[in-house]
Amino acid sequence: MIYTFDSRIRFSEVDDKGFLKFDSFINYFQDCTTFQSEDLGIGIEHLRKKHRVWVISSWQIDILRYPRLLENITIGTFAYDFKSFLGYRNFFIKDEQGEYVAKASSIWAFLNTDTGRPEKADPDDMALYGSEERLDMDYKSRRIVIPDNLKKLDPIEVKPYHLDVNNHVNNGQYINMAFECLSEKKMPEHIRVEYRNQARLHDIIHPYTDGTIVDLRSNDDTSYCVIELT
Length: 230
What we know:
The structure is a single chain. Helix content is 18%, strand content 36%. By secondary structure, it is α+β, with helices and mostly antiparallel strands. A hairpin with a 5-residue loop joins strand 4 and strand 5 (100-112). It is globular, with a radius of gyration of 17 Å.
């Protein structure tokens, strides 16, 4: 089942040149999948009562162009595969002419919040999402190879505004942190993100970067999240 909603690029969503900020793509995608789940009756509260949650494992986002302030757009999403506790989902944004502005692929893990361990999703819930043929994209590996000799930058403390309803750092916030670590603030055309561990309030995140890949690490030097911006 393909789910869509329409929007108009708001002043609060654009940069100083009037183009949609790259983190706003993430926000639109997150809103879209949330809207679909809620409209199907299998959203946040439904899962919370079952002590279950969908957690993002990886993103691949290809931005074909940055839309401008006041443009009308359509945001869409659909599932294209389920394997045990993993769900595979595409996202897209189209302009008024029906041309793609962005395409994305994502992998989600279904977790038991009591144990913190993955488990197979409810087949009845998955049947409501349905399954569509995946978008035509150059699909990359979920795993991002971390290069050697990264430069360590100033640490970041997790603040309340970084968190989402699950009380860990929102997946889009990691990408914002990574972008701020880059010396050259060029808007990315391709974004890959691999989520490895969850950061929570007051955790200290230590960024390492080579200018393209940013590894956000914990105090014990394990990765919370690895981001590639090109």
